[in-house]
């Protein structure tokens, strides 16, 4: 169910609970009970630190951007970090056997779009069995593991779990799937986390609501577009994106004074067809405009088409870097000594 719903989030998820949410409540109760039951399982404890970057809701909160930022910071510490991920809709992911992503050989169709992005920064393993991936990564030399998503996956013990929350939508109507966007009951998930990161503008008052619910760090991070985006301000651009919340990308462009003449949304993880590419090319030619998209979308484009598109990278800017450094320092202290 989660995999299907992540393609497009119903608008009623982000309004106070109404008739539809109420009608779906019995199913949501069952989903919540199953999620709570899963949390009772004990996962395999790896001999190296495991940092999980996850969320309580379906949809985009900036997990991949956050993982890439953490990889960079750990590399600066001289740490051999590997990533573990599910490989959503990856056709080469067969059963629980871990697959190491090879950017030179694999495509987004093979392993999913996020693993390809991560593999460009650090070794990345895809498998629904996170414990099997962890063992494979450690055998390959990893001394630190980052889980991209998988907060609800009980197979692998997490030494520290960072929960990301989009400040623009928060936890929605705070109902569990399918009545709302939560993957598990809110308090169940919060109790299993070690810190929260609010991404973007906190227009929903997430920090205020969490201060009465948790006693661990609440960090803040902003998603910033690369500085070179200024070169697009004087150009006609057509923006397209297949994300959980493509409007976030379009909004970020506008905030940076890049005003697209058209914004085209596709479903999350959309596999671009020849018809899609022909339509985009036709629009660009008609308007003498430059096509602009995200890195996550770019890896799903054929190489020949990718060369015609400007890819706009997004970086993370932490409001309290000292708190993040403290978390990373505490985890690296647990690393096995040579």
From TrEMBL:
<feature type="binding site">
    <location>
        <begin position="57"/>
        <end position="64"/>
    </location>
    <ligand>
        <name>ATP</name>
    </ligand>
</feature>
<dbReference type="GO" id="GO:0009245">
    <property type="term" value="P:lipid A biosynthetic process"/>
</dbReference>
<dbReference type="Pfam" id="PF02606">
    <property type="entry name" value="LpxK"/>
</dbReference>
<dbReference type="GO" id="GO:0009029">
    <property type="term" value="F:lipid-A 4'-kinase activity"/>
</dbReference>
<dbReference type="InterPro" id="IPR027417">
    <property type="entry name" value="P-loop_NTPase"/>
</dbReference>
<comment type="pathway">
    <text>Glycolipid biosynthesis; lipid IV(A) biosynthesis; lipid IV(A) from (3R)-3-hydroxytetradecanoyl-[acyl-carrier-protein] and UDP-N-acetyl-alpha-D-glucosamine: step 6/6.</text>
</comment>
<dbReference type="GO" id="GO:0005886">
    <property type="term" value="C:plasma membrane"/>
</dbReference>
<keyword id="KW-0418">Kinase</keyword>
<keyword id="KW-0547">Nucleotide-binding</keyword>
<keyword id="KW-0443">Lipid metabolism</keyword>
<comment type="function">
    <text>Transfers the gamma-phosphate of ATP to the 4'-position of a tetraacyldisaccharide 1-phosphate intermediate (termed DS-1-P) to form tetraacyldisaccharide 1,4'-bis-phosphate (lipid IVA).</text>
</comment>
<dbReference type="GO" id="GO:0005524">
    <property type="term" value="F:ATP binding"/>
</dbReference>
<comment type="similarity">
    <text>Belongs to the LpxK family.</text>
</comment>
<protein>
    <recommendedName>
        <fullName>Tetraacyldisaccharide 4'-kinase</fullName>
        <ecNumber>2.7.1.130</ecNumber>
    </recommendedName>
</protein>
<keyword id="KW-0808">Transferase</keyword>
<keyword id="KW-0444">Lipid biosynthesis</keyword>
<dbReference type="GO" id="GO:0009244">
    <property type="term" value="P:lipopolysaccharide core region biosynthetic process"/>
</dbReference>
<keyword id="KW-0441">Lipid A biosynthesis</keyword>
<dbReference type="InterPro" id="IPR003758">
    <property type="entry name" value="LpxK"/>
</dbReference>
<keyword id="KW-0067">ATP-binding</keyword>
